[in-house]
């Protein structure tokens, strides 16, 4: 796992699924959820989040500190976390989840430098026809690929 992930985008179901998968990975790797702390940016400031991130995990596991609704943080909180990402502890994974963080903000840039941005954007209405065609093409490739691997052919 990386030190920090920003899980964001306009496709909320995919954003939620990615956050659940990250949480599940930490649980599967450690066998417990004791090293997982989940915060809501609307109720918790950066200080509380970073105190949890600085707390060593129990055992050999990784501590996951997840912050939902990060768009609700004030600029001061975002700046505190951006500064923190300059040297995060190696035993912690910080996951910032939600929309509302712009690419020109210091926190976004700090995440790019220290970790990974996972962006899940829903297609725009004008892009839907092309998106549907791409999904159909991918589905056909998977189906045909599976047939080729099995040795089955509709032409025999």
Summarize the structure.
The chain has about 160 residues and is an alpha/beta fold.
What does this structure look like?
The chain is of the alpha/beta class and 156 residues long. It has helices spanning 12-30, 46-54, 75-84, 106-114, 128-150; strands at 4-8, 36-40, 63-68, 92-97, 116-119. The mean pLDDT is 89.
Features:
single chain, 156 residues, alpha/beta, five-stranded parallel beta sheet, 5 helices, 5 strands
- Span between termini: 47 Å
The strands making up the biggest β-sheet line up spatially as 2-3-4-1-5
Number of helices: 5
Question: Mean pLDDT score, rounded?
Answer: 89
Helix content: 40-55%
The largest pleated sheet is described as: 5 strands, parallel
Q: What structural class should be given to the helix and strand makeup?
A: alpha/beta
Strand content: 15-25%
Radius of gyration: 20 Å
Succession of helices and strands: EHEHEHEHEH
Mass-distribution shape: globular
The multimeric state of the shown protein is single chain
Please mark out the parts with pLDDT under 50 across 5 or more consecutive residues, or reply none: none
Total beta strand runs: 5
Secondary structure layout plus pairing:
Blueprint: E1 4-8, H1 12-30, E2 36-40, H2 46-54, E3 63-68, H3 75-84, E4 92-97, H4 106-114, E5 116-119, H5 128-150
Helix pairs in contact: 3-4
